[in-house]
Amino acid sequence: MRINKLLLICLTAFLVFSCDKDDDDILPVTLRDRGEQAIEDDQDLVEYLSTHFYNYEEFENPSEDFDYVIRFDTIAGDNADKTPIIDSDGLITKTVNSEGVDQQLYVLKVREGVGAKPTFADSTFVTYSGELLNGNNFDSRLKTPTWLNLSPYFSRSQGGVAPGVIKGYQAALLEFGGASGYSVNSDNTINWNNDYGIGAVFVPSGLGYFNQARPGIPSYSPILFQFSLYIAREADHDNDGVPSYMEDLDGDKDVLNDDSDENGLPNVSDPDDDGDGTPTRDEIIINEDGTISFPDANDNGIPDYLDPDTFQ
After folding, report:
1. Strand stretches in the chain, DSSP E
2. Domain PPIase FKBP-type spans what residues (predicted)?
3. Residue that terminates a domain, selected from 202, 233, 264
């Protein structure tokens, strides 16, 4: 399948995109203080993690027909003796800064996966399902995997920015690897090696949609996803030979604010990063082992592909 087709599929994944809805679909809300909201969301998430469990027993002793999908339920009644998620050995906490405010992200690693892990700017082939903390499901793509970009980029074919996933989902996927491989059946369906990454993430609104309501997601809602990661593919959105994650020159995990030649097109989408007329691909060296060398012909500390004073 061609990469541009895969990216087009990715653009249809409405759930984790930050694309705007029509004004008529979004009601104005009072803008809350991000720091105060982060504290409130964390309290709600900790309460959820303390009062809910996942089907860990099915993962510990899977039946022959087990689908390896995470399911959540309340600790009560017949489930009163279950281990809460907050006490799970697989739960980790990540501090992620957004808009200058540190947010607590909770990631449940049911199975890490043995394949390559994505960078923040890569493409991932996943299944997922999203819920509110009250259990209401707002999107589910558990039947067929879909490609999702973890970071936005400028798309010439789309005539603007192709959005990535929400920040909380992005940060969680970095903790997981894909499958070691797969086999293709006679009917062209795929059997994945049973070692792909499986997990869940519990997201404060500040790492989600914050004050922007979405269908099924009220504003200021903490949300959660459970997911499986099958493939992590290194992205090179402008096909210039430099992986997209390496186009983040200032290291802030935002590839849209790195524009070396200041032509309005970020490096991640610019095949001539320094605007000297020589394509970036012709100013780097891709070695046989896949590594990249960056020549600096005039020894000024700036690699040729970023130096408009060095060109052919």
Report:
1. 52-54, 72-74, 91-98, 101-111, 123-132, 137-149, 153-155, 160-162, 182-184, 190-192, 197-203, 223-233, 285-286, 292-293
2. 121-233
3. 233
Which of 211, 233, 255 is at the close of a domain? 233
Flag residues of the chain having pLDDT under 70.
1-28, 157-159, 311-312
What pLDDT sits at residue 167?
96
Question: Each residue of 239-280: pLDDT tens digit?
Answer: 999 999 999 999 999 999 999 999 989 999 999 999 999 999
Give me the pLDDT at residue 86, please: 98
pTM as predicted = 0.86
In the beta sheet, which residues pair with residue 129? 140, 226
CA separation, residue 120 to residues 18, 175, 209 (Å):
16, 11, 18
Q: What is the pLDDT of residue 189?
A: 87
SS3 304: helix
Using DSSP, state whether 28 is helix, strand or coil.
coil
Owning domain of residue 177: 3-233
Angle among Cα 271, 277, 282 to the nearest 5 degrees reads: 60
Name 101's bridge partners: 98
Q: Helix (H, G, I), strand (E, B), or coil: what is residue 312?
A: coil
Rounded Cα gap, residues 111 and 176, in angstroms: 8
Of 232, 208, 250, 229, nearest in space to 96 by CA: 208
Q: What is the DSSP letter of 214?
A: B
Cα 269 from Cα 267, distance rounded (Å): 5
pLDDT at 24: 43
